[in-house]
Specification:
Layout lengths: L1 E9 L3 H8 L11 E8 L2 E7 L2 E8 L2 E5 L3 H14 L2
Antiparallel strand pairs: 1-2, 3-4, 4-5
Length: about 80
């Protein structure tokens, strides 16, 4: 689906890498986010980790975790598509 939508995405940063190297598990609630603009989204799916509801954005063979719920992302994409008609 061709879109032009900006969503917050959890990022795996240097701090996350250091914690992982030390064998310390990280949580989504502690993960930083950055905005990412998508021009192509292949699919979305619910994502739940330790009771935190989020969504997975599938884009050109990659997966991105968004802190918005599946329903919130679905509505944002529909609104974006309707406004581009």
């Amino acid at each position: 689906m061709t879109v032009n939508i900006t969503l917050p995405i959890y990022i795996y940063d240097e701090d996350s890498s250091k914690l992982e190297d030390l064998g310390i598990e990280t949580s989504l609630k502690d993960a930083p986010t950055e905005k990412m603009t998508f021009y192509e989204i292949n699919a979305i799916a619910p994502y739940i980790e330790n009771g935190i509801e989020a969504s997975t954005i599938f884009c050109n063979g990659r997966e991105f975790i968004c802190p918005l719920s599946y329903g919130e992302v679905y509505v944002k994409i529909r609104k974006e598509n309707e406004s581009n008609k």
